[in-house]
From TrEMBL, chain A:
<dbReference type="InterPro" id="IPR027417">
    <property type="entry name" value="P-loop_NTPase"/>
</dbReference>
<dbReference type="Pfam" id="PF00005">
    <property type="entry name" value="ABC_tran"/>
</dbReference>
<dbReference type="GO" id="GO:0022857">
    <property type="term" value="F:transmembrane transporter activity"/>
</dbReference>
<feature type="domain" description="ABC transporter">
    <location>
        <begin position="4"/>
        <end position="228"/>
    </location>
</feature>
<dbReference type="GO" id="GO:0005886">
    <property type="term" value="C:plasma membrane"/>
</dbReference>
<dbReference type="InterPro" id="IPR003439">
    <property type="entry name" value="ABC_transporter-like_ATP-bd"/>
</dbReference>
<keyword id="KW-0547">Nucleotide-binding</keyword>
<keyword id="KW-0067">ATP-binding</keyword>
<keyword id="KW-0813">Transport</keyword>
Automatic annotation (TrEMBL), chain B:
<feature type="domain" description="ABC3 transporter permease C-terminal">
    <location>
        <begin position="319"/>
        <end position="437"/>
    </location>
</feature>
<dbReference type="GO" id="GO:0005886">
    <property type="term" value="C:plasma membrane"/>
</dbReference>
<feature type="transmembrane region" description="Helical">
    <location>
        <begin position="14"/>
        <end position="33"/>
    </location>
</feature>
<feature type="compositionally biased region" description="Low complexity">
    <location>
        <begin position="217"/>
        <end position="227"/>
    </location>
</feature>
<feature type="transmembrane region" description="Helical">
    <location>
        <begin position="409"/>
        <end position="428"/>
    </location>
</feature>
<keyword id="KW-1003">Cell membrane</keyword>
<feature type="transmembrane region" description="Helical">
    <location>
        <begin position="360"/>
        <end position="389"/>
    </location>
</feature>
<feature type="region of interest" description="Disordered">
    <location>
        <begin position="211"/>
        <end position="262"/>
    </location>
</feature>
<dbReference type="Pfam" id="PF02687">
    <property type="entry name" value="FtsX"/>
</dbReference>
Amino acid sequence: MHPLRIERLVYRWPGAARSTLGIGALSLASGERLFLHGPSGCGKSTLLSAIAGVVDVPTGAILVADKDVGALNGGARDRFRVDHIGMIFQVFNLIPWLSALENVLLPCTFSKRRLERSGEDPAGTARNLLDELGLSDPSLASKPASELSVGQQQRVAAARALIGKPDLILADEPTSALDEVAKAAFVDLLARECAEAGTALLFVSHDRSLEHHFDRSVDFLALNGGAA
Amino acid sequence: MLGFSLRSLWNRRFVAGLTVLAISLSVALILGVERLRDGARDSFANSASGIDLIVAPRGNSVQILMATVFGVGGTGTGMTWDSFEWLEDRPEVAWAVPIQMGDNHRGYPVIGTDASYFEHFRHSGGQPLSLAAGTFLSGDGADAAVVGAEVAARFDYAPGAVIVNAHGSGEVSFDLHDDAPFTISGVLAPTGTAVDRMVFVTLEGFDALHAEEDAPAADPLDPAAMPTDDHDDHDDHGGHDGHDDHEDHGEHEGTEAKHSHEPDRINAVYVGLIDRTNVLGLQRAINERPSDALSAVLPAVALTELWGITGTAERAMRLMAWAVALAGMIGMVVMLSATLDTRRREFAILRSVGATPTRIFALIVAEAAILTAAGLILGLVLLTVATFVTDPILSARFGLRLGLNVFGAREMATLFVIFCAGLLASLIPAVRVYRMTLADGLSVRL
C-alpha cells in the first residue's frame, strides 16, 4: 500500500493559461518522510490541494492509500480526506473557540476510521499526543485555542494531524511562523511522531535548513518539470 | 452538529444574545397582540350572553352596548317608565330588566336595577350570576347593594359593609353621595366579565341618592343647591341621566305592584324574548314607537360593529408586530452574515478535518435554528411574565383576562411560521458560506 502515488498529473486552474502542475511521478512509502522544497508561489500549495482532493484532478493521476482521488465526488472526497490524511497549515490551524483538546479531537468527530484508530479513549490518546509534543500542562489542553502561542498552536495542529494514525500527513510550511529554535524542535517532534504512528509525511517548505530531518528531499521545480 | 453550533454561538454570545432578544420581543409582541385581541373579544362576548335586546334612548348601538354591558360611557337622556312598562307588556317579551346608570363607586360603575337582573343576566355562555356571600337585592331594603367580585376583592368588602357612591363615572370624584350610604347585602362570585367591576343597587336606592342631592343647600358652592335651576344642572353631571323627578312619583304608586319602586326615567332595559325569531319584529316596533325615541340593540350585532371599528387598529397592531419580527429576522441574517468573513478560516479548518460544504451549510442553518428557537422560548417567557404583570391591571381597568396558559393551535402555528421564517432567512448566509467554502478550499488567503 502506498500512502501516496502520483502519476502523470497535469493540473490547470480553471481559466489559467498555463498548467500549474505537471508531475511525472512521485510516491511515498508507508512511514516515509519526504521534504519537498521550492520557492514561494511555484505551485506547492496547489499540489497539496490536489492531493487533499480540494481541486478537481483528472482520474488516475493521484492515488491516496491506493484510492483514486480524482474519481471521488465532492462530499466523498471530504470524507475520504479525513479518513486518510492529516493536514497542518502555515498559521491559524485551530478553531479559536474550541479548546486545544477539542481541536485535536476534530478528525475523530468527522471520521469513524480515525476514531476507531484513536484507541479506546480518544481523549486520552489526544492528551498523550499533546504530552509528547511538549504540551503536558493539563491547563493548556482545556484552554481555548485562541489563547495559545503560535508555537503551541502549531503543535496542537500536529497532534490533530496525527490522531487516529492517518496514512499521510500533508504539512504546508508549518514552521514559517516559528523562530529558528522552535522550528527545529517542531520538525523533530513531528518526524518522531510520524515514525511512531507509521504515518507518511509530505512536508512542504522553502526553508532548506530543515532538510536533514527527512528521509528524502525533492526539489519541487525539478519535480514539476512537466508543467508547460 | 447542534452541539458544535451551540459552542460556536456561545463564542459570540453577546451578539447572539441580542439577536435572540430581538426575535423574542417580536414573538412576544405577535402573540401578545393576538392574545389581547382574543381576550378582548372573549370577555366582551361573554359579558353579553343571554340578552336578546338592549333597549335604550336613541343612540349609537355600540355606545349603548358599551354603556350598559360594560359600564363604559353613558347612554342618551333616559327613557320613560311608561316605555318600560309598554315593553314589559309586549307579547314577545319574556322578561325585561330596568337599568339605571351614571354613578360610580370609587371608579366602578354603579347600576340601579332590581332583583330580576340577577335572575336573567347570563355570562360566559349561559351561566347565571351566583353569590360568593350574602344575598341578591331583594324587594325590601332600598339601601342594599350587591358588589362584583373584583370590587369586593379590591376594597375588601363583605356583606354588611357600608359604602358611599359618587356622581358621574370618573375615577376621581368630589361629588360624593355620602349622605346616602348603601349596605352591602351580597358579593358576587367572579365571572371574568364586566359584572365583576360593577356595583348593583336597587332602583329605589339609586333614586334616593339623587333625592338627597336635591335637598336644599348642603354646600353653598354647589350650584345644584341653588333653588332656581337645580334641574338643568343635572345635565352636567357626567352622563347620569336616570334622575328622578320626585313630583311625579305619586302617579305610579297606585298602578301596580310588579316593581317595588318605579322610577320616572331609566337608562336602559335588558330584554329577553319568548321566541328569539321575533327579535327583528320587536326591534322595529321599538324603533318606531312614537312617544319615546328608543333604540333596540342586538348585542351580537353591536359587537360585530365594534369589531369593525377596532379592526383597523388590530390590523395595524398586527402589522407592527410582524414588522418587528421581520426586523428580528433581518438582525439574525446580519449577525450570521457579518461574521462569515472572519469565520472563513474556521470553515477551511473544518473542511480540512473532513467537514463537507453541505455540513458547513448545515452548521449555519443549525445556528439560525438555535437562535430562532431560543428567541421563541424567550419570547414565550417574556409574554408569560408580561401577562402575569399586566393581568391584574388589564382586568381592573378593562375587565380583560388574558389567562396564563392559553396556548392554542393557532399560536403553535404562529410559532412554527416564525421558526420556518428563521430557517428560511438563514439560507441567505448559508448559501454564501457554501459557495465560499467551495471556492476557498483549504487555504484561505487572509
